[in-house]
Amino acid sequence: MLNMQMGRRGLLGGALAAGASAMIGTKAFAAMPERRLAFRNIHTNETFDARFFGANGWDLQGLAELNHGLRDWRNNESTQMDPKLMMLLSQIRDKLSLSPRTKLEMISGYRSPQTNSALRQRGGEHTGVASKSQHVLGKATDIHIPGVPLDRLHLAAMSMQAGGVGYYPRDGFVHVDTGRVRTW
User: Fold this and answer.
1) Rounded to an integer, what distance in angstroms lies between the CA atom of residue 152 and that of residue 150?
2) In whole angstroms, what is the distance from residue 149 CA to residue 179 CA?
3) Within a 10 A sphere around the Cβ of 160, how many other Cβ atoms?
4) Three-state SS across the chain?
5) Separation CA 141–CA 174 (nearest Å)
6) Where do the domains of the chain lie, and which CATH numbers do they carry?
7) Rg from Cα positions in the chain
8) Which region among 62-66, 91-95, 105-109, 118-122 has the lowest average model confidence (pLDDT)?
9) Using one digit for the tens of pLDDT, what is the confidence trace for 35-66?
10) pLDDT per position as a tens digit, 120-151
11) Nearest alpha-carbon partner for 96 in 149, 172, 31, 29
């Protein structure tokens, strides 16, 4: 049964990624080398290392694996994450001169609407949990990288000018999303 579910997940993820690829335009990335992401989910301790872009464009199997890894760990719900987020995270890692196999520590990826609402209610409006969070749209992740000072990660993310960047030094992470360019 698990193999059947993984097959369906891969098929669905692949179909959605193919649509995203058409919207983004693979030609824009045609000259790019292979791209991959490695990360560890700090809540489940699962690790993922997947190639998501290769010589022929988006790697649908790799994107499906990353979508699964970035799922809402509270209820095991996943969504099609924005492929541009994967590209952005790999570019931030490159900006920091880190190996493609360097594991990012993922604090939060996708958040289901139910999880987002519960987090917001539990902590009030001042938690940093937006009612229309990019996490709910599959366009955001909260990360840190072992051995990389958080302020350095924050500056690298801001230098990309590719979406939102939130700096949470007290909580030990940087928020990165592919929404409009903004900082907090």
Assistant:
1) 5
2) 25
3) 15
4) CHHHHHHHHHHHHHHHHHHHHHHHCHHHHCCCCCEEEEEEECCCCCEEEEEEEECCEECHHHHHHHHHHCCECCCCECCCCCHHHHHHHHHHHHHCCCCCCCEEEEEECCCCHHHHHHHHHHHCHHHCCCCCCCCCCCCEEEEECCCCCHHHHHHHHHHHCCCEEEEECCCCEEEEECCCCEEC
5) 8
6) 2-183 (3.30.1380.10)
7) 16
8) 118-122
9) 999 999 999 999 999 999 999 999 999 999 99
10) 776 655 456 665 789 999 999 999 999 999 99
11) 149
State how beta strands 103-108 and 35-41 pair: parallel
Residue 177: what residue type?
D
Smallest CA-to-CA distance from 177 within 114, 121, 145, 130 is with 130
For the chain, give the number of residues.
184
Specify the pLDDT at position 123: 62
